[in-house]
Amino acid sequence: MPEEPYNPSPIGNPSVLARRNWWQTMLVKFIGKHTPKCREMVRILSQSMDEPMPLMMRIKKRVHFLICCWCQRYEEHLHYIRKTARQFPEHADEVSGASFPPEVMERIKQKLVEKVR
Amino acid sequence: MSATDLQRASRWVDDHGQCLYRYALVRVRKPEVAEDLVQETFLAAVRGYEKFGGRSSERSWLVGILKNKIVDHFRKLSRELSFTDMEFLSDEFSEKFVSVGLWNHDKGPHEWRPEPDEVMHRSEFWQVLGDCLSKLPEKIRAVFTMREMDGVPSNEICAILAITDSNLWVMLHRARMALRECLEMNWFDTPAGGTV
Prior knowledge:
The complex is a heterodimer.
Chain A: H1 22-34, H2 38-47, H3 55-67, H4 69-87, H5 102-116
Helix pairs in contact in A: 1-3, 2-4, 3-4
Chain B: H1 3-28, H2 31-47, H3 58-80, H4 116-119, H5 123-135, H6 138-148, H7 154-161, H8 165-188
Helix pairs in contact in B: 1-2, 1-3, 2-3, 5-8, 6-8
């Protein structure tokens, strides 16, 4: 049977609300219809990392998360990326690739002496 | 410059030069530009050492100076190069979504383990993150790193790069989506990452 267009909950959906009984199915359909679709939600989630989300959208997001663990994970991943990215500069020497050539090191030391003199 | 200042600066280059140079290289990709930025950083550090009260580690302080130098570099670059060009990902990973705009559940985000505090001690993670960042197109990477690594507020990035809010959001959205996907595929879904 083809998937109904407004039902974002496949069989086995691990979200809080899924099609586990008739009531849940109705709720999932209602929420699916009245909150942004996932493609739009991920854009909104990204934008909310840069500017505050309006109250009504925050409510819609919370309600959407009840039926969509994937969008909820997406938001968690954005925060994960931010948290680790902020630490990246101090771990940059753990990234292999171009090393710091000794001649560059010497050149920098030499220029420091010349410029600060 | 006293002999002590010189000794101190020389020690900074030995202890932190590698880290600063590699970080600059991830950001700007060109070795000669990275070298100049690192050199300017040490120079500014020597001149401003009195202001360093030891509130943070030497490395954090030097990285902070380098971040400002990188922002200045992009400010200059934006006068020559338009950052409003939209590069790559025009379909925004369309295979991730079914036609009605919902996640394709087989390809939706997985749960990520371990917690950020744990991965920060694993050098393989930084390697994967560095590799994923290097796959981003230049302008998108510049915008993303300025926002997420340097923590520059979005309105300031718009002013620095002379782009609109909506351009910035689109670029950040694309960068985040690509980076998330790359990290999941190359770290979290691998035995090293811990999800599987």
